[in-house]
Amino acid sequence: MIRRFWLSWEALLLAMLLALIAIGWATSDVFGQGSTITLITTNSMEKALMALPMTLIIISGEIDLSVASTLGLSSAVIGKTWAAGWPLWLCIATALMVGAICGLFNGLLVTKLGLPSLVVTLGTLALYRGLAYVILGSEAISDYPDRFASFGFKEIPHTRVPWTMLVFIPLLIVLLILLHRSWIGRQIYAAGSNAEAARFSAVRVNQLKLGLFVLSGVVAAIAGVMFTARVSSSRADNATGFELDVVAAVLLGGVSIFGGRGTLIGVVLSLGVIGTLRQVLALNSSNAELQSIAIGSLLILSVLGPNLARSAAGLRSSRQFAGMRSRGATPAD
Predict the structure, then answer these.
(1) Which residue in 152, 133, 119, 139 sits closest to 72, CA to CA?
(2) How far apart are CA 307 and CA 281, in angstroms?
(3) Is residue 8 in some structural domain?
(4) What pTM was estimated for this model as a whole?
(5) Does residue 23 carry a pLDDT above 70?
(6) Tally of domains in the chain
(7) Tell me: the pLDDT tens digits for 161-182?
(8) Fewer CB within a 10 Å sphere, N or C end of the chain?
(9) Count of Cβ atoms closer than 10 Å to residue 148 Cβ
């Protein structure tokens, strides 16, 4: 098992993470401070949260590009309802309901009408962002109570752990068990590997994917609540462009864009790689454009790397088989 781990994609991600940490320590005097680690975690939390259900969706053979727009729409709903005098708990509940509706709409278009999820969610990416602008326009709502804002960026007393980790960790544990230790997880992998074969095996593929899209919408809305609390402001353009980091984290984590392959552990490691890379670049005065170039390069690597590894493994197996044939042996021998 140890040997298999060190030959896995997750091991490479762990090595990349350790290398980035070493570079950060070598290039910045403040990188090793506890506040920097907390900052990396806090700034990445909404993306990390959305990456968890995105992992399940991509493994099932679909994709959801509308998560950042759903986050922005949920933030706009919180701001509009709060400005209208609603209780904060009702504002949050309404935002979560909006997120569920967004996910349900995506899922119905994909499962009932048979439309490609890439095209559907690319369209709803613009649709949900447009609705956020309809709700708030250029207005910004920022008069939230201190207890709400504190949840977004402050730490649990006497620790370096941000309060938002109390949302991320339980969701991660639940989805780890769901994906890797339950029959639902086996069905998700089966649907992504071969949807038709899964249907013949009594897997309700459409219902499964619909549920995953709803989950993605709800989690994106939760991320919207967390983002609104962290920046203490509701704006229609909140989290614009976050979908790039979310998809990059999932694919860099070893999840196949074609579905049927990947682990949540790899995604968690890739989230650490991306968050640490952004912080190292920021501490070394790199601009936003350079950070985008770095993340885009990682996205290409995430697709190219596993494919090259599988091609190399296939070539090695072919050579071994050819060598056995040349010696007059067979695989059974």
Answers:
(1) 133
(2) 28
(3) no
(4) 0.87
(5) yes
(6) 1
(7) 888 899 999 999 999 999 999 9
(8) N
(9) 17
In a domain, 176, yes or no: yes
DSSP string, 204-259: -HHHHHHHHHHHHHHHHHHHHHHHHHHHT-B-TTTTTTHHHHHHHHHHHTT--TTS
What whole-number percentage of the chain has pLDDT above 90?
55
Q: Which two tokens stand for residue 235?
A: 């704006």
Q: DSSP letter string over 97-114?
A: HHHHHHHHHHHHHHHTS-
For residue 70, the enclosing domain spans: 34-239
**Which of 188-202, 230-244, 267-281, 287-301 comes out lowest in average pLDDT?**
287-301
| pLDDT at residue 195 tops 70 | yes
Answer whether residue 16 is part of any domain.
no
The three-class DSSP label of residue 155 is strand
Q: State both tokens at 287.
A: 């601009």
CA separation for the pair 226, 218 (Å, rounded): 13
Instruction: Read off the tokens for 99.
Output: 């997120």
Question: How far is the CA of 22 from the CAs of 16, 98, 188, 280, in angstroms?
Answer: 10, 42, 37, 10
User: Does a structural domain hold residue 275?
Assistant: no
